Amino acid sequence: MKKVLFAAAEALPFISTGGLADVVGSLPAALVKKGVDARVVLPLYGTMNEKFRKDLVLVKEIEVQLSWRKQYCGIYKTEHNGVTFYFIDNEFYFKRDSLYGSFDDGERFAFFSKCILDIMPHIDFYPDVLHANDWQTAPAVIYLRCNYGHIPEYQKIRTVYSIHNIAYQGIYNLGTMGDVFGINGWDRSIVEYDGCLNLTKGAIVCCDRLSTVSPHYAEEIKTAEFAHGLQYIINESSYKLSGILNGIDVNYYNSEIDPEIPYNFNADDFSGKAKDKAALQEELGLPVDPDVPVVSMITRLVSHKGLDLVECVLEEIIAKDKIQFVLLGTGEANYEAYFRNLEAKYPEKVRAIIKYDKTLSKKIYAASDIFLMPSKSEPCGLAQMICSRYATVPVVRETGGLYDSIRSYNEFTGEGNGFTFTNYNAHDMMYTIRRAMAFYRNKEEWNKIMKKAISEDFSWAASSESYIELYESIF
Ligand code: ADP
């Protein structure tokens, strides 16, 4: 097994809205270091930064047929961290203000998925494994199985389909199957689920291996509580399902050399972190106080991030305890309003920054003492790993990848790299935040906990090996 083509809707550093971009931006590079010829294909969005756009080289211009439509497909490429990235250009589909959320998302990503397969002869790269990620590239797995079986070069390609979040499945009216998605009537049973066309279900049926982003989440999605209706098909496919914990790019998130934080620091000397804290307090207009614990959240403001627990008890903690709370996030209007109101009510203790800002996020990761992630479900979660890289101690609920990556601190054995709670319960969360803040007051003990957090290995070293084993297991 030598050649892998990653297909995804986003990847760092080119374009990102969430954790998927972190993974697609770093896993291929880790595989290349291990001798795999891993390449990536992405849409060329209108919103991609000019600084990357100017380095793109045109490979070829072709036309791609999907259903009755024949459309322009420009193939561009560039190299980053030793990985070749291909970009699919079609301004009609991808020159939009945002990546997702258009009425024709299904058609846009069906076209992208068709291009993933049709560019192969033109880039002179038929992979051994096509690794598709999430519903936007699910049609590529379906088309390969249903429509390309008669072409010898495509017959040899095996597929891995990774679920990064099962909540987003690509569900459409069955009436769109032929016209929009170009799926033949006789393949209806592959994509039909619960009376709809479900792209994720189709890819689950067609793929050779199914993976998800943590071992615990792989178990959770077998149950109705987590599977958003797909539990039956996941259980049917459990023979080919595995969970591999994501890593992060430990050079990009590195407190020792990160150019985006004011002061660098490492596990032997946290004095830079104290200065980062003072700098952030100053920048945000909070009282500059080294002794008050700064608790932060950096998150999409959607309900599965545990925000109803936060709404239930955070104000009580803020009113009674010595604490500063910083939120960076955007999302559902009710949560944005909740945090804005909290800031208005407690201007000396709370900052709610309602935007998406990568640089500010790093300053907050570096400056905080405690990072809160009380998710209801969390396929893997990256923020708990990122904060640890900056010696900010995570407080998490034991679900999905949070369960696999953070172990609760045990003051008797010195084991653990954060604080955790089991039940999705607001007062359990409150107790755990207070437990962490109690340790924070004991400087010597807290230093030990910070060291445990920053010393945890969240690199791709182990997980990239697991992916290679997964690819090899198909042949
Ligand atoms: P998800 O993929 O569900 O959004 P993850 O924890 O896996 O959650 O990944 C979230 C990523 O997005 C992290 O890198 C986090 O720092 C980043 N992020 C989330 N919200 C913001 C924001 N408002 N500004 C900057 N970065 C953000």
How is this structure best summarized?
The chain is an alpha/beta fold and 475 residues long. Helix content is 40%, strand content 21%. It has 21 helices and 18 strands.
Distance between the termini: 8 Å
What's the Cα radius of gyration?
Answer: 23 Å
Largest sheet: 9 strands, mixed
Structural classification: alpha/beta
pLDDT averaged residue by residue:
97
Structure notes:
The chain is α/β, with parallel strands linked by helices. 40% of the residues lie in helices and 21% in strands. It is built from 21 helices and 18 strands. The protein has helices spanning 19-33, 50-53, 91-94, 105-118, 120-123, 134-147, 152-155, 188-191, 199-206, 215-220, 224-227, 231-236, 271-284, 307-320, 333-345, 358-367, 383-389, 400-405, 426-441, 443-455, 461-472, and strands at 3-7, 37-43, 57-66, 69-80, 83-89, 129-133, 158-163, 171-172, 192-193, 196-198, 209-212, 241-243, 294-301, 324-331, 350-353, 370-373, 393-397, 419-421. It has a nine-stranded mixed beta sheet with strand order 3-4-5-2-1-6-7-11-12, with helices on both faces. Helix 6 (134-147) crosses helix 9 (199-206). The mean pLDDT is 97. The structure holds adenosine-5'-diphosphate. Adenosine-5'-diphosphate (ADP) is lined by residues 18-19, 22, 298-300, 328-330, 356-358, 361, 380-383, 386.
